[in-house]
Amino acid sequence: MKKNKPFPELLFVWALPKKHHMSHWDALSPRTSVMPPWLYLAALSQLEAVLHVGPHKTGSTTLQVAIVENRLIRRLIQADGYLVADDCPGPVPAHTAKNGVNFAFAARNSSGFECAQCRWLVRAAEQAAAAAQHLFYTSEELSLANTHVIAHVSAALRGAGYAVRFVVVYRRLHDRLPSEHREVYPLSGGGVGAYMTLTQYVTMHLHRIDTPSDFAHLCRTLAHHGAVSVLDFRSAVGQPNSSFVTEFVCSQLRAPSTCAALRTTPGLRRTAGAANARSPSLTPIYDIAYGVGAASGVHTIALRAMVFEIRRQLRRNPDLPLPVVCVEPGTRAQLWKLAQSEEGAALRRPLTRAETSELRDDFDRKVDSFCSVDVEALVMEPAWQRPLDAVRAVL
After folding, report:
1. Residue 149's closest CA among 104, 184, 181, 91?
2. Are 248 and 234 within 8 A, CB to CB?
3. Crossing angle, helix 100-108 and helix 116-130, to 10 degrees?
4. What backbone phi and psi angles, to 5 degrees, belong to 353?
5. What contacts 342, CB < 8 A, 6 or more positions away?
6. Nearest to 325 by CA among 197, 178, 186
7. 183 Cβ partners below 8 Å, 6+ apart?
8. Contact 392, 379 (CB under 8 A)
9. Residue 287: helix, strand or coil by DSSP?
10. Residue 318 neighbours by CB under 8 Å, 6+ apart
């Protein structure tokens, strides 16, 4: 019988000394690995700056809300010796989940790391170092920064006496896409022409999806300027007393008091892991609302009123048929190839037969739901005529 692992399945990349002939990325070990003793001892004896860089649609907002805005978790992390860098000047208010974008945007647009936000980072690092605190910064926007910005960030933190470690979260393609679609749509203002259903979105944006080489390139770029840890978004799956935020705090921040509190306090863990994205159940409602608006020839719709009326009609008529259209076989095949390639890029090795089988099962289960309401068929359904009249009345 296999023993339970003390930590979830993690992917680690660590920076090696220049005299070592192995590349940074080649140090990536399949699924789990043990930090080399020399690096572990160095980490114990030096303050660490942990920079969470996303990328997008990998649970960043959930993590940021939990660590930055949850007062109890924040106090626990501070008691564990961390300064949370979340008061950067800029349009996003201090001590809010997305405050980190102020620095990321300014640094990306600054020449030579000369900006008020850049100076803020240096001051925050010096302040934390003077108090013998580790430093934590989070913004998924930093994953889009070029190598010059990353080099400046790393140099500034090392100059303050920190060992730099970047944390990258890996999330499977077929989990990211629906989440991304729910974030983009519905558009503010109720514009009909710009709306895309999930099936349209997947098909039209297939060529714009981050490629496996992008993920590997991000890790390689970061590894030139510090240690890199890659956390599997699914790391909490099957783990008792766990959540994504819990695993991040325990395995990446290595904050013992906060970790213990999250593992032993279900209410705190549920609060920290609360989803921030729109419910998937609203997606077909939006499909109907925008589809009816387009069929009626209008440019904008009263979205809130239409959603309310569609939901009311569905509650009153639970047996209404809902025709759907799903991704075509060719698109599905392309998605599968990309999903395999990304998983292999994350592991930095070919998938085993068992891993391919698990990935395929997960892929099929998720992609089977990549469907949208076929509004053209729906408006032809006799059972929908009276409900649609009521929906059109609130366009």
Report:
1. 104
2. no
3. 130
4. -60, -40
5. 172, 173, 212, 215
6. 197
7. 57, 277, 278
8. no
9. helix
10. none
SS3 288: helix
Assigned token pair, 161? 């006496």
Which string of b and e fits 164-203 if b means at least 16 CB within 10 Å? Answer: bbbbbbbbbbbbbbbbbbbeebbeeebebeebbbbbebbb
Instruction: Choose between 250 and 36: higher pLDDT.
Output: 250
Three-state DSSP at 94 gives coil
Q: What is the pLDDT of residues 146-188, one digit of tens each?
A: 889 999 999 999 999 999 999 999 999 999 899 889 888 887 6
- CA–CA separation, 198 and 204 (whole Å): 10
How far is Cα 285 from Cα 186, in angstroms, rounded to an integer? 11
Coil, strand or helix at 336: helix
Domains and CATH numbers, the chain: 10-172+211-272 (3.40.50), 280-392 (no CATH)
Residue type, 125: A
The residue type found at 338 is L
Contact 121, 145 (CB under 8 A): no
Q: Which helix (H) or strand (E) holds 163?
A: strand 163-170
Task: Name residue 49's beta-bridge partners.
Answer: 135, 164
Beta strands in 234-340 (DSSP E): 324-326
Question: Would the pTM count as exceeding 0.90?
Answer: no
